[in-house]
Amino acid sequence: MEFRPLRAFVEVARLGGFSAAAKAVFSTQSTMSKAVKQLEEELGIPLLNRTGHRPVLTAAGEVVYRRGIKLLADREDLIAELDDIRGMKRGVLRLGLASVGSGTVFAQLFALYRQRYPGIEIQLVEQGSAQLETSLRAGAIDLAGALLPSSSDFDAEVVRREAVVAILPERHPLSTRSSLSFADLKDTPFILFDSDFAMHKMVIEACRRSAFEPTIAACSSQADFMVDLVGAGLGAAFLPLMVAQRTEHSAVRSIPLNEPNCEWVMAMIWRRDAHLMPAARAWLDLVRDCRAGASDPDASSGAQG
Predict the structure, then answer these.
(1) Which residues, listed in sequence order, are joined to residue 166 by a DSSP beta bridge?
(2) pTM surpassing 0.70?
(3) Which of the residues 39, 132, 147, 229 could staple to 96 if both were Cys, CB 3.0 to 4.6 A apart?
(4) Are strands 252-256 and 154-169 parallel, antiparallel or unpaired?
(5) Which CATH number fits domain 85-159+264-292: 3.40.50.1820, 3.50.4.10, 3.40.50.970, 3.40.190.10?
(6) pLDDT tens digits, residue range 179-197?
(7) Which long-range contacts (CB under 8 A, 24 or more apart) does 147-150 make?
């Protein structure tokens, strides 16, 4: 089996369509379609049902997708190990970052990395934590900056911990409180990050522990827009403290959450069985060096799984 048609099929299945998959691999829709057709002919069975607006995996397609992800990831590991043996002079760091808070957490790390390793090309993607985990499993990226907890499939290195604050309209009845719980806000509509963001799940699970389902007024991937919606009186939002401090709005108030098991924890994660390329190992070493030198009381903690 050739890997190029398999890669095309996995990307189509992962991204839900030929057009999105073509963009992801810098190809054309027709090329992706031909590659998937080639794989189907080679295997002698349809992998996609193309009758609707979006291709849907057949039963055989589910099997090939699940197995294909591992085959492609193993191939990347093989190439990485061979590159190690050859003594690679230049390298590539394929890094995925969460859309929330990454600028504050990683900007200085990027600058230091470039100073130390000017020959390394950095390929960066920004996604929600759930999408980043999918990309890691598929071998599309080497490391991801995502929120904990993550799947047991991954090892993790904590980068930063932040309290979560509630963002309320200035005239909200609870806006003068010194702290709040989710139960205090059960009658207030919530403005949440999109469902593929770890913070969306965090808030929903915290509300369920308090025995209520929140009313969701809106979801977004943009913290600034969420704060604007709060300022317009649409409801309450929830942000890590460092993001809230960088998002100014005269018509809102930030109030600490007095809520157990509700902490924003950014970590670097990677596949537990992966062979990390030198560029990725160098990034992890830099993360550990910077964390060990920080004033964070958790600075001396090691990798967590």
Answers:
(1) 238, 255
(2) no
(3) 132
(4) antiparallel
(5) 3.40.190.10
(6) 999 999 999 999 999 887 8
(7) 147/98, 147/198, 147/199, 147/202, 147/264, 147/265, 147/266, 147/267, 148/265, 148/266, 148/267, 148/304, 150/267, 150/269
